[in-house]
Amino acid sequence: MPGRRSLFVLMALAFGFAFLYLPILAMIVYSFNASRLVTVWDSANSPTLAWYAELFHNAPIMESARLSFRIASLNATGAVILGTLAAFALERYRRFRGRALFGLLTTAPMVLPEVITGLSLLLLFVALQDAIPWLGGRGATTITIAHITFSMAYVVVVIQARLATVDRSLEEAAMDLGARPWKVFFVITLPLIMPAIASGWVLAFILSWDDLVITSFVSGPSSTTLPQLVFSKVRLGVSPDINALATILVLIVTVCVVLAGSYMVRLDRRRARDAQAAFDTAS
Amino acid sequence: MNAAADRLARGVRRLGAAGGAGPLGRWFVIALPYLWLAVFFLIPFLIVLKIAFANIQLSMPPVEPVVTWTADHVLQLRLHFSNFAFVFGDELYVAAFLNSLKVAGVSTALALLLGYPMAYGIARAPGAWRNVLFLLVVLPFFTSFLLRVYAWLGLLGRNGPINDLLLALGLIREPLQMLQTDFAVYLGMVYSYLPFMVLPLYSAIEKLDLTLLEAAADLGCRPTKAFFRITLPLTKEGIFAGCLLVFIPAVGEYVIPALLGGPDTLMIGRVVWDEFFGNRDWPVASALAIVLLAILSGFVLLLQRVQAREREA
Asked: In this predicted complex, what is the ipTM?
């Protein structure tokens, strides 16, 4: 009886992972296909790196990739700063005026349809345009502001979860020894939540780098991000250089996630070891 | 009197310190993100609400002002309910809302059917495997959403590998039209949102106390019965959370119906987009957004309650 059930679970796992990964694998394989008809395999001339070469010589794609990278890094930094503050407020200050609304504001951007968030931010920017000229019309600045607003919510979740596990006695000990609150934060708390801050940064970067819908609402004619360019190309049908682009991005993300994962595990292990060593010396 | 005030002040100071910063620091920590969210998240909604009550007009922005000063210095507020009347009176919009709910609901059910056994398998996998499988579920979430939807464009095409395979197996005589159908939209939805379903289910199943199942087995309960009487009820929270995390974004989805759906795949996210960019009818787009928000807010509050309960547990 248990055998049959675990067989069912194994089959579901196999099917589920095949479902998740076969399309990505197909995209990678077809990126080496010489034929312009993406899914017709040209066995005479494949595999080829022609589409990769074409990709790197495609000026608009490279230009928009640079813009997306700039916006994503700026966004991730801003989202991590604001997200850490918000997570700290929610986790450490159990009561303050308007806490319920604050909690709602930090989670809602995560689940709301992007068309609503995008539309509402655009209407705000249009209303602000006359009042605040430094916003300089819509473009990289408005995209970055919009991205910080929605990616911050994800950062809050990651950092709040980590903050909840921080051993408060360490902070209290530092405070008893006379450290000022801000010093306690930078010397004790911040290093302890560093793994969460790092993964929050990566998460915010990727969310911004990927975003199409919100970006399309708040961008201007002079700023086209990579997802916008890809979307306008893909709407006309499959295109082999997009396969090459996808392959490169999948590769980068895989390397980053694996590195970040192992970094976090290592950091945790080292910290546990240090704490153990400290206790050992003390006793 | 003085002593009491002194004690109070000391108490307040200690309270602030317990939080990790002085009163000024505490104010700063709360106010900065609060202000940001108020300006860039709360106020924009109020503007959407305002414009939903405005008239369309040929200008930039293409809306008539709602609040105006008349010549004799009277503040005039003109609210037009016509946009909402228009939205509810037009069969197309009503159909789009109903269809979005249907597509999201069916996709959620399909994702649950596939996601539950997957989450179960991952949670019950031996130690090292568990981390690898978990990472494999998370990984697609980090890879571009747009490109993953795009991947299906190639697979489902008339000359794509799926049609090739079915033809080679002799199951069909001529290529199937799979792109630009509702089938493709369901497929894209389940594919894109499956990780959102698996992650909360995984954490719920992992927390499950296995001795309960052992006790049931010892008392002669059959595994199937034990699953429905013990495992399923105890992972209810995970099921709720997973379903809401898939359903809510799926209702307003734009990219999937735009790329994989046909011209007659009506979904509200797409309709809002087309009203805004195509027809430049900002008031109707805003009214649609408000109605969509009203439909979803109940689900969002439910999700918040489920997640709060999960944190306490």
From this structure: 0.83
